[in-house]
């Protein structure tokens, strides 16, 4: 039996609206959460149109003109805006009947390209038991027929398996939110032999070492160390009758180990350094987990990944900004301070889940609103943007 996708009802309306505007096809991403039993789809987001696409629509439609790089870049940008527990679960395509035959091949290709692009940026490794199936959703713009299949992204020769696509209202109403603040003080040495323009590479190596520390940390949920295999909601009251459920929030403390255990041998390396990078500040992290008997280890894993992602994403954004505005020319860096972008959270309409973005100090609210429309096809009110933290350097 294939996988089951429980899908937020409003996505059905969104896809129907898109199908009325299709000329001759539209692609997009499915966003949600995997779990051992079933997967949850909480958003569908169309690929932003490219400006030149408007002029190119001459001659018979072809799927060969699909811009794979544009779609994978969109997936990378969107993945930065997802808190812990959420990921790009697959891709969708709404196409006219004459393109339907080639649609599945195009979707298969996209699924593997998107996964390759996203896994390149990750500083964590997927767990062995993790779900590696991703969804390929195809909708005919004329008949509105929905076909959902999955591919195993860990297997390049994977063939399509059928999957169930079921709509459900208030899908995330009783999901659990976990939040924590992590104080960061990372010292990354720059080797004297390393050229200055390797700053980004050195930072990534330093973050890699730090991410292993986070993986080995102890997580206290509401002040308690919990057994990983117990249910997260064990002992909590279930909602009954017409009581309106609200998001259950768990406060988490992260205890990082100061040194290795006595049994682990430590080897020191002496290296000649020409400088160093220091990352300092407090980062706000958040993860969401489904309410269908989630395990403690699922919740902790989601939060760990958010901690690691939020710092590496910010460093990436800072380097992109530096290259764009100043160019990272080979020069002798003195002591320089750069402010990492701050994290903000924005509610998703009709959901208890919030999405995230990053803001530089001089960025206006309007720029962030534009980014949400372009990347997530969602309009955001300025008063709904919650800046979560102080400035970090």
From TrEMBL:
A cellular component annotation (GO) from this entry: membrane
Source organism of this protein record: Panurus biarmicus (Bearded tit)
Cellular location(s): Membrane
Function description: May play a role in the trafficking of a subset of G-protein coupled receptors.
UniProt key word Transmembrane helix: yes
UniProt similarity note: Belongs to the ODR-4 family.
Sorted UniProt keywords: Membrane, Transmembrane, Transmembrane helix
Record protein name field: Protein odr-4 homolog
Pfam families (UniProt xref): ODR4-like
GO BP, sorted A to Z: intracellular protein localization
């Amino acid at each position: 039996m294939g996988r089951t996708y429980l899908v937020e009802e409003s996505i059905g309306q969104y896809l129907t609206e898109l199908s009325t505007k299709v000329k001759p096809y539209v692609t997009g991403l499915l966003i949600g959460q995997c779990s051992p039993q079933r997967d949850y789809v909480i958003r569908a987001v169309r690929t932003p149109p490219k400006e030149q696409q408007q002029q190119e629509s001459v001659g018979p439609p072809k799927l060969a003109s699909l811009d794979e790089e544009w779609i994978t870049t969109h997936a990378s940008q969107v993945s930065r805006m997802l808190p812990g527990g959420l990921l790009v679960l697959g891709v969708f395509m709404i196409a006219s009947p004459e393109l339907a035959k080639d649609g599945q091949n195009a979707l298969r290709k996209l699924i593997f390209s998107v996964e390759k692009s996203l896994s390149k940026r990750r500083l964590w490794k997927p767990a062995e038991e993790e779900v590696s199936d991703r969804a390929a959703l195809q909708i005919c713009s004329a008949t509105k027929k929905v076909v959902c299949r999955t591919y195993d992204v860990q297997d390049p020769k994977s063939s399509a398996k059928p999957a169930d696509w079921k709509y459900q209202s208030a899908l995330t109403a009783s999901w659990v939110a976990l939040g924590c603040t992590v104080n960061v003080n990372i010292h990354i040495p720059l080797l004297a032999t390393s050229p200055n323009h390797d700053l980004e590479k050195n930072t990534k190596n330093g973050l890699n070492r730090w991410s292993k520390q986070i993986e080995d940390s102890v997580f206290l949920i509401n002040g308690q160390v919990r057994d990983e295999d117990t249910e997260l909601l064990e002992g909590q009251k279930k909602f009954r009758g017409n009581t309106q459920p609200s998001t259950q929030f768990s406060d988490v403390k992260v205890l990082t180990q100061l040194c290795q255990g006595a049994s682990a041998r430590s080897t020191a390396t002496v290296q000649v350094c020409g400088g160093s990078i220091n990352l300092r500040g407090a980062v706000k992290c958040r993860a969401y987990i489904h309410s269908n008997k989630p395990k403690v280890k699922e919740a902790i894993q989601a939060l760990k990944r958010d901690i690691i992602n939020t710092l590496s994403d910010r460093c990436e954004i800072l380097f992109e900004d530096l290259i764009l505005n100043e160019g990272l020319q080979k020069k002798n860096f003195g002591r320089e301070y750069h402010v990492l972008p701050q994290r903000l959270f924005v509610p998703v309409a009709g959901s208890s889940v919030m999405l995230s973005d990053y803001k530089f100090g001089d960025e206006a609210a309007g720029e962030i609103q534009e980014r949400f429309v372009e990347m997530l096809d969602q309009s955001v009110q300025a008063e709904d943007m919650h800046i979560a933290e102080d400035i970090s350097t």
